[in-house]
Amino acid sequence: MKVKENRTVLLLSLFIVTALVILTIMGSYAFYQSTLTTKGTATGPSVKAGNLQLDFADGTSNVNLTNMIPGDSYSKKFTIKNSGTESVKFKIIIKDVTNTFTNKKDVTITVKQGTTAIKSNVQFPTAKAAITDTITLAPSATATSYEVIITYNSTTADQTGDMEKKLVGTIFIEGAA
What we know:
CATH topology of the largest domain: Jelly Rolls
Shape: elongated
Number of strands: 10
Distance between the termini: 71 Å
Largest sheet: 5 strands, antiparallel
Oligomer: single chain
Strand order of the largest sheet: 1-3-9-5-6
Strand content: 35-45%
Radius of gyration: 28 Å
Number of helices: 1
Helix content: 10-25%
Order of helices and strands: HEEEEEEEEEE
């Protein structure tokens, strides 16, 4: 009698565990499943997207400046190409920032699109920050040129406290609404 009772308890336990596993799998599938509903043509829906390509003239997105003296400027040139089918909105960002300057306001950034300054005299940040407002780039077969110019501005104040200081960062783009 005891063996039959143990077998019944074992089978019932096995059934409950199996049912719980099946319910968990079904619940997880429902949780992660998503549906895209679009209004398409007779041939089906279509999805359009932008596709940005960022190329640096010197092959790197890194900025690593040391031993700047007042009046020095550093230029970082790159192109951005939208080979997608829709316009894309983005901001130019600097991240992974190290700014050891004491007089932080003395180091500024100017950003040019082609030959036109789109942002001027922005203080070099101390943490990840946008260095432009939102830029909209239409699809094009050609790339648009950009230049980030970092300047250690000469002032009438004593700037010896900033000797041997450094500026480090990585320039990249981030989608914007």
